[in-house]
Amino acid sequence: MKLTVFDRDTWQEIIATMKKHKLRTALTALGVFWGIFMLIFVLGMGKGLENGVFRGFGERAKNVMFVWSSPTSLPYKGFKPGRVPRLQLRDIEAIQSSIPEVDRIAPRKTLGNQVVSYGEAKDEYALRGELWDMINIEALKMHEGRYLNPHDVEESRKVAVIGTRVREVLFGERSCIGEYIRVRGVEFRVVGVFGPQQIKPWTEDDMEAVVIPLSTMSRTFGTDNRVDYFVCSAAPNVLVSEMEPKVRGLLKERHHVAPDDPRGIGGFNLEAEFRSVQNLFKGIEAFLWFVGIGTLLAGIVGVSNIMLIVVKERTREIGIRKALGATPGSIISMILTESITLTALSGYFGLVLGTLIIGGIQYFMTVNNLEPDNFYNPQVNFSIGLGAIILLILAGTVAGLIPALQAARVNPVNALKDE
């Protein structure tokens, strides 16, 4: 069977038919065009929404849990309810030595706002005591110098890492590395400047903080190695949901909290939130595909109906072709070629326009430095574009299949009598 897709006469006939019925062709093509355009547009905008929400997680590790203490709600081993366990550095060491599923632990102790001064400049900032791993877990980045290191903690060095806003207020434009700031009468040498990966209302505290080694805070300000909370990350190939009960169980045992007490040792699993958001957007994407394909199906039905009309109009012509020896396969191929061509061309223009609009929105946001909290970098993935093209080919085939089969069943004798 000769493939009519490569037949020059077939293409001339298709073009002539489209020119002859311009309005009908345009209206039919509009349905497919709009279906593909809406599919690409809603998926691209949906991706922008997804990127914006996931961007809110920043560069923070996703396999982490936050642990803190809270008033107990049950009596246990002679302790009354309402007692608040005091987390200490010894708890961190116990977790590291007892639970292999834990990879990193980063505790934090905050003394609240303290007057921090350099020369005549001064202001109040939160004073934090930390270990060196916090920057590897939280969404922080260094602007100058370095963060805390193990030697700072082991030797209880009087060093400090300051937030970007602290540097601006105390030092202005000058470099602050190696300079000394004063906190509650104690001098600390500045070794670095840090800040959040993204400036958001909930990350501004990092810009207005002064971080010193936890051991230095304990010795200098008498905090007895207490911590307010800590963040721990799971080891590779370990889920936080597997690690969390072991960490909380160990802490409850160490601080005499009833095992079935929902309070006492509080926790927040970032993995659970991250996965819930992932599942939410999978559902949204499936819904958008459903809506887009539904719109496209309406266009396909229109193409199929038009092709049935075309077959009806060309019944006599098809009869002549079959009388001259045309096979049913060649008739089917001719109708399918016309259907796929109409569908593919209109769908391609919808695909291009949808991609251009999504790209234009992204360009406009980049040029104008627009960064909404929940919308970022709308895009059309290559897989979506490829899927749309495959969908177009299938749509054209489905739209023309019924008319093509009907044309193949035309009886030449009856067709020649058709008026």
The number of domains: 2
Mean pLDDT: 82
User: Which structural class do the helices and strands define?
Assistant: alpha+beta
**How many helical stretches?**
14
Provide the succession of SSEs. Answer: HHEHEEHEHEHEEHEHEHEHHHHH
What is the spatial order of strands in the main beta sheet? Answer: 2-3-8-5-7-6
Helix content: 40-55%
The span between the termini is 30 Å
Tell me, briefly, the overall form.
elongated
Structure summary, number of beta strands? 10
Identify low-pLDDT runs. Answer: 1-5
The whole-angstrom Rg is 34 Å
Report the biggest beta sheet as strand number plus sense, adding barrel if it closes. 6 strands, mixed, barrel
Strand content: 15-25%
Please tell me about this protein's structure.
- The chain is of the alpha+beta class and 419 residues long.
- 34% of the residues are buried.
- Mean pLDDT is 82; it is low at 1-5.
- The chain is built from 14 helices and ten strands.
Map the helices and strands.
Elements: H1 8-20, H2 22-55, E1 64-69, H3 89-98, E2 102-118, E3 121-130, H4 134-137, E4 140-145, H5 150-154, E5 159-163, H6 164-171, E6 180-183, E7 186-196, H7 204-207, E8 209-213, H8 214-221, E9 229-234, H9 240-254, E10 265-269, H10 270-313, H11 315-323, H12 328-367, H13 382-408, H14 412-417
Parallel strand pairs: 3-8, 5-7
Antiparallel strand pairs: 1-9, 1-10, 2-3, 2-6, 2-9, 4-7, 5-8, 6-7
Helix pairs in contact: 2-10, 2-12, 2-13, 10-12, 10-13, 12-13
Short key terms for the protein model shown above:
alpha+beta; 54% helix; six-stranded mixed barrel; 419 residues; 14 helices; elongated; 2 domains
